[in-house]
Amino acid sequence: MVQLNPADSTLTIQSVGRTGISGGEAKATLTQRVTYSRPTFMNTSPPAALTSCPAITAGGSSNLTGSATVYNGIIPDFTTVTSASPGFISGAMATGTLSGSGWPATLTVADATNLSTGSVIQVGAQTYRVTGEPAINTLTVVPANALNLPPLGTSLTGSLNLIPIAVRGTAFATGTSTNGKPIYRLPIGDPTSIYINDTLYITLQGVTYGVAVTGKGFTGGDLTQGYTDVTLGPAGAGANTYNPLTGALLLANSIPAPTSFQLASAASGTPLRRYVPSAMSAGSIVGVASGVVPSSAWGGSSTQSPAAIAGNSNVSCGDELFAQLFNNYTKTQYHNLVAPANRLSSPSAQPLNNDIYWLGPSSFPSTQSYSISNGGLCGTGILIVNGNLNLNGTGNVDLGSNSCTSKGSAGGTQGFNGILYVIGNMSSQGNTVIRGAVIVEGSPSPSVATKLSGGMNITYDPAPMIASAKNLSPLNFSNRAGTWSQQ
């Protein structure tokens, strides 16, 4: 027998054992409360701000922005530390060890919803690792690098930044790749936000290096024991530096590969970051059959930064694209995780609320077509559209009416924030603002180009993905101390 206790995130489990018959029967009842939680992981890895299996045509004033070497791998102002115990680093904490000497410190934050054990954070200029969640909006932390303790008097309150992908151990050689390159296993905190053939950047002693991902996984099924397997040297367009405003190529093959010694010297807590182009297509982009798309070829007055890439082999199609994006989840598995209230038969004017959603029938591919007009899509979430989508602008959250409107209200999110995945074809017009990523799988027959016109603005941003993608994390269970009883 199981009783769910959402208020304190526990399950009450009861087991009844019987022996004997009738009047001579003996019975024992064991009861235990178990704490459950979903770890905060990205669980999704968009290859670009806009990823399309079909070709992409662009016009109007579309603006697509990914992330290149200018991104430092840190999400700023993720939340705020409102109080801490102690409030400042003591002499013992600055010179001692992580066991004792005042560690761990306890932080009270404005919102710990999207932080969990294993998260790597920054407060001020110092980096810490979360070791526990003793209470709601309360975290225990230790320095991420035991050899680099924060100095005496360092404040433990203020703005809290999140490092989604952080080194957590020393890299070591583990074999060779199919082309004979050595493979190194690099322990990282969250491998769910990268994909095979991804390019990762790491800055060591002021120099930015690149590596190419050949694998990822977890040790013993524990997500806090994640790792990525890499070869030394960035792949594809990730090896190049681009103008951050126009996406124009500045220096070909300008990102160097680290040595094995340099990679192994990366301190625990060091940020890694992904190379995320502005757009990628398995087909052509604006008349360019394959390769890096120059800014001059981008239609109308549209801009892209960093480069857009046509004919890219990193873009899978069909079910493989979905699996690549969502850590090998199938569409059926994703649909089964969506709450019934979030399985939509038609576009909803209500804001998406940090959750996962499915628009369309449960069977796929669907021949349905949907039109979302200005004010019909807003809020934060992951939305799968099982069919074709004609997107005529996004809305803003109106807190008073709990709806998507053209004006919104103070404190309401603007545009759509998160991931929009279209299983069919997509065209966009109107004033569309998306922070996160858009993925278009396309219909296998007939293949129709992804069309951008009007003001299509997509800015890759991992922050809004985290809140919703957490709903794809596996549940973790642990016994709650002092709750076992026998009757």
Describe this structure in words.
The chain is mainly β and 487 residues long. It has four domains: 2-40 and 473-486, no CATH class; 50-67 and 277-472, no CATH class; 75-163; 172-274, no CATH class. The protein contains five helices and 38 strands. It comes from Deinococcus aerolatus.
The largest sheet is: 12 strands, mixed
Rg over CA atoms: 24 Å
Task: Return residue spans where pLDDT drops below 50 for at least 5 consecutive residues.
Answer: 4-10
Structural class: mainly beta
Mean pLDDT: 87
Shape: globular
Q: Output the number of helix runs.
A: 5
User: Roughly how many Å apart are the termini?
Assistant: 15 Å
* Proportion of beta-strand residues: 35-45%
How many β-strand stretches?
A: 38
Provide the domain count: 4
Helical residue percent?
Answer: under 10%
Highlighted features:
about 475 residues; mainly beta; 4 domains; six-stranded antiparallel β-barrel; globular
Write the layout of secondary structure elements.
Layout: E1 2-5, E2 10-19, E3 26-37, E4 50-52, E5 56-58, E6 63-65, E7 75-85, H1 91-95, E8 105-109, E9 120-123, E10 126-135, E11 138-143, E12 158-163, E13 172-176, E14 182-187, E15 199-204, E16 207-219, E17 222-232, E18 241-242, E19 249-251, H2 260-264, E20 272-274, E21 279-281, E22 291-293, E23 303-305, E24 308-310, H3 319-325, H4 331-337, E25 343-344, E26 352-359, E27 369-373, E28 379-385, E29 388-392, E30 396-398, E31 403-405, E32 416-422, E33 426-428, E34 431-440, E35 450-452, E36 455-460, H5 463-469, E37 476-479, E38 485-486
Parallel strand pairs: 4-21, 4-34, 5-35, 6-23, 6-36, 21-24, 25-26, 26-28, 27-29, 28-32, 29-33, 32-34, 33-35, 34-36
Antiparallel strand pairs: 1-2, 2-3, 3-37, 3-38, 7-8, 7-12, 8-11, 9-10, 9-12, 10-11, 13-14, 14-17, 15-16, 15-20, 16-17, 18-19, 22-24, 30-31
